[in-house]
Design brief:
One of its GO terms (molecular function) is transferase activity. By secondary structure, this protein is of the alpha/beta class. Among the domains are: 245-304, no CATH class; 386-517 and 533-587 and 745-780, 3-Layer(aba) Sandwich (Rossmann fold); 614-698, formyl-coa transferase, domain 3, CATH 3.30.1540. The protein contains 29 helices and 24 strands. A hairpin with a 7-residue loop joins strand 22 (721-724) and strand 23. Helix 6 (172-186) runs parallel beside helix 19. The longest helix has 23 residues, at 549-571. The protein is globular.
Length: 790
């Protein structure tokens, strides 16, 4: 079997998780990835989040996972011959992936712009905290401070309002950045582009919910305060269980499930958060009297989203993952690691091979010749690709939105009886004119798309959808599996209509297994995969990120789809891509299972501390927040000894520079350091703290309210937000992509999100329908341009 990226060579000049995950995705797709390191090696080789000792002749388990199937070359940047060999590798490659951390990557001849100049046929992908351009391009940052700048720490109002907000554990932004870099590289192979990846912008898209657009269209933030989601994660009789209510109906069902229908007043509108908080003590008392299995069985029967709260010890044994064989032994070291985040039929992904030892292939690996490209380097990468977008809410539309921004023609299929759910969640009063066209979330997720409404549960509607399928290269859907299976639109049926179609299915838990038909919302995916487990304070139950599960699923489905498009471009063959939300999540939470399997270490949440930096925490500042409260914070994360010395000099504690010079000593004295920094920051505004520490080289950030993202000068300089008008909603700024392409200028957003059924006539006429037939379909309610109940 030929792999989608067979014949492409990628030189990996990166260090750390983001670049390693990018090139892992490419290697899984069949690319020949050559990891080039300085003689001391990538620091990830000696990394363990739990602090496990890595013997001198061994590699850390996370490195062994991320470096599967790659080859290893060592090169000393001080050795002219070694540098020449690196450039020979680049001259024979199709792509290079770069990040700035290593001595080798820092060499002037190996900076991204210089690589691009010397090797113009090479696609160069650079992954940096803030991007290659802009006023912050050289500022220090860590995952923790990037979460703060992005607004992702406060996010959707996450965390106990009586305590500091909490960051999302597990270095999730690094994984998201790597997945974006992989997508940008795959779509650009053979074009000679320089791709500039901003990790800050990847954080914004993965950890927040289009807050700028929401604020500018509706004049208010999505949430103006922090609160614990109820019930969320709760303590059952025998462990932790998670239940969530995203709709009024789910809250009604939950009240019935626990025997308290009187909690809902039928004469008053339902405010779920307010009611849930009021009855929380009784609700938690009920849950404490039942086992996890009892609660989940009841909740599943009522179709209330629920999940066990997985961690590194328990996740591989959960019944859905065992049934689907979601974990496998590492081919070299034997610990458990996740399978691919998507599955393809035919099975064209490359099975993992052992990771290379440092410099293992230095003498044996010779430069190759770049693959002759049949791609056009100019223009939007996906121009000419037609996509039927049968998705809704966040996960699916986020994947198809990238396709639309990169030039694909995307037809967003809705029905008047069931419009896309994001049209309905903005809290716009139904008394407003065309209220369903005023949702900022729908507007932000669906620019450049067309809207067609078809009730495919009718005979005529089903025939229309089949005509649409025949006209499209790609079909993407994220219903529960039974929906399309019941109406005869499973993959085999779709393939019978168009043999070369690529069908991307995005179920919550997979197309098979005991959880196949369970309701899947972002927080449930986070609970089951371990993302929730690492988020929160160690003395309390974990806190759901409440955002990450959806956009991460869309991003991985996008990568699977791009590989399928490359396979079809080469072979003419269509494909089924199964991209379960939860399997995308266990891939970016992989470190938990890997650490437990390799070292017997259970990673746990630590509030705002973490394994990378010490000290690392949030500190309250002197100014009130914009709501008149005290929720103003700065994030400080000291990741290196020089940064510690710089911090000590600025805060007036030069004695600590020697006393606590070692990171181990700083971790042992973290409480003492926190006490001093809390007082020091508490006497200053956030801007003052940043203004003192950042120029000195200390990673620091204001904890931004998400809707203030557009105020950041770095995002303004890079044009991350673009202003667009909408015929009903008005003008607002829209986030773009965390990728900048050297040969593609703005705008990413070429047309606003479509109004419901706006393109019915145009698209149906293309299918051969006349005006009378289209009018008859509207009369029968098969198509329409307003919700059926209006």
């Amino acid at each position: 079997m030929t792999h989608p990226l067979s014949g492409f060579t990628v030189v990996d000049l990166s260090s750390g998780i983001a670049g390693a995950y990018c090139t892992k995705i490419l290697a899984d797709g069949g690319a020949d990835v050559v990891k080039v390191e300085p003689p001391e090696g990538d620091p990830l080789r000696k990394w363990s989040a739990s602090g496990a000792a890595i013997p001198p002749d061994s590699d850390g388990a996370l490195f062994s996972y991320l470096a599967c199937t790659k080859r290893g070359v060592a090169a000393d940047p001080d050795d002219a011959a070694a540098l020449e060999h690196v450039h020979a590798l680049l001259a024979g490659a199709d792509a290079a992936v770069w990040s700035p951390e290593s001595r080798l990557a820092a060499h002037p001849s190996l900076r991204p712009a210089e690589i691009h100049r010397r090797h113009p046929r090479l696609t160069v992908t650079a992954i940096t905290p803030f991007g290659l351009e802009g006023p912050w391009r050289d500022r220090p940052a860590t995952e923790f401070t990037l979460q703060a700048w992005s607004g992702g720490i406060i996010g959707l109002g996450r965390g106990d309002p009586g305590r500091a907000p909490v960051h999302i554990g597990g270095q999730v932004g690094d994984w998201l950045s790597g997945a974006y870099a992989a997508a940008g590289t795959t779509v650009s192979l053979g074009t000679g582009r320089l791709i500039d990846v901003s990790m800050l912008e990847a954080h914004i898209l993965g950890l927040t919910y289009y807050p700028v657009t929401f604020f500018e269209l509706l004049g208010r933030p999505f949430r103006s305060g922090r609160a614990l989601f109820v019930p969320g994660v709760a303590t059952a009789k025998d462990g932790l269980v998670a239940i969530g209510c995203a709709t009024a109906q789910q809250w009604l069902d939950l009240c019935a499930m626990v025997g308290h229908p009187e909690w809902v007043d039928p004469d008053k509108p339902i405010a779920i958060t307010e009611l849930a908080t009021k009855v929380a003590p009784d609700l938690y008392e009920w849950m404490a009297r039942h086992t996890v299995a009892e609660i989940r069985e009841l909740a599943t029967a009522f179709r209330i989203p629920n999940a066990p709260v997985g961690n590194g010890s328990t996740i591989p044994g959960l019944e859905q993952f065992t049934a689907r064989d979601s974990f496998r032994p590492n081919p070299r070291d034997g610990f458990l690691q996740p399978r691919f985040p998507y599955r393809m039929a035919p099975g064209v992904l490359r099975e993992p091979e052992p990771a290379p030892r440092l410099g293992e292939h230095t003498g044996s690996h010779r430069p190759s010749r770049p693959r002759e490209s049949d791609r056009t380097p100019n223009g939007l990468p996906l121009a000419g690709v037609r996509v039927l977008d049968m998705t809704a809410f966040w996960a699916g539309p986020s994947a198809t939105h990238v396709l639309a921004m990169l030039g694909a023609e995307v037809i967003h299929l809705e029905s008047t009886g069931r419009p896309d759910g994001t049209r309905l969640i903005a809290g716009v009063p139904v008394t407003e004119d065309r209220w369903w066209e005023r949702s900022p979330i729908f507007a932000a997720l669906n620019t450049n798309k067309k809207s067609v409404t078809v009730n495919f549960r009718t005979e005529r509607g089903s025939a229309l959808v089949r005509k649409l399928v025949a006209s499209c290269d790609v079909l993407v859907e994220n219903y529960t599996p039974r929906v399309l299976d019941q109406v005869g639109l499973d993959y085999q049926s779709v393939r019978a209509i168009r043999p070369d179609v690529i069908m991307v299915r995005m179920p919550g838990f997979g197309l098979d297994g005991p959880w196949r038909d369970h309701a899947a919302f972002a927080y449930v995916i986070e609970d089951a995969s371990g993302l929730t487990w690492l988020t929160g304070n160690p003395d309390a139950n974990p806190v759901e990120p409440y955002s990450l599960g959806d956009p991460n699923a869309g991003l991985h489905a996008l990568n699977g789809l791009l590989l399928a498009l490359e396979h079809r471009r080469r072979t003419g063959e269509g494909m089924l891509v199964e991209a379960p939300m939860v399997e995308a999540a266990i891939n970016i939470a992989a470190e938990q299972v890997i650490e437990h399997s390799a070292y017997g270490a259970l990673l746990n949440r630590a509030g705002n501390r973490g394994p990378v930096a010490a000290p690392q925490n949030l500190y309250r500042t002197a100014e009130p927040d914009e709501y008149g409260g005290t929720d103003s914070w700065v994030a400080i994360a000291v990741a290196t000894d020089p940064q510690w010395s710089a911090l000590c000099a600025v805060i007036g504690r030069p004695d600590w520079a020697d006393e606590l010079a070692a990171a181990e000593a700083r971790r042992a004295q973290h409480d003492r350091i926190d006490g001093y920094l809390g007082q020091w920051c508490g006497q200053r505004t956030g801007d003052e703290v940043v203004g003192l520490l950042w120029p000195a080289g200390v990673p620091v950030a204001k904890v931004m309210q998400p809707h203030r993202q557009a105020e950041l000068p770095q995002l303004q300089a890079r044009g991350f937000f673009e202003t667009l008008g909408h015929p009903v909603g008005g003008r607002a700024r829209y986030s773009t992509l965390p990728l900048r392409f050297s040969d593609l200028g703005p705008p990413f957003h070429r047309s606003p999100a479509p109004m419901l059924g706006e393109h019915n006539r145009g698209v149906l006429a293309e299918l051969g329908l006349g005006e009378r037939e289209i009018a008859a379909l509207a009369e029968e309610g098969v198509i329409g341009d307003r919700p059926a109940w209006q």
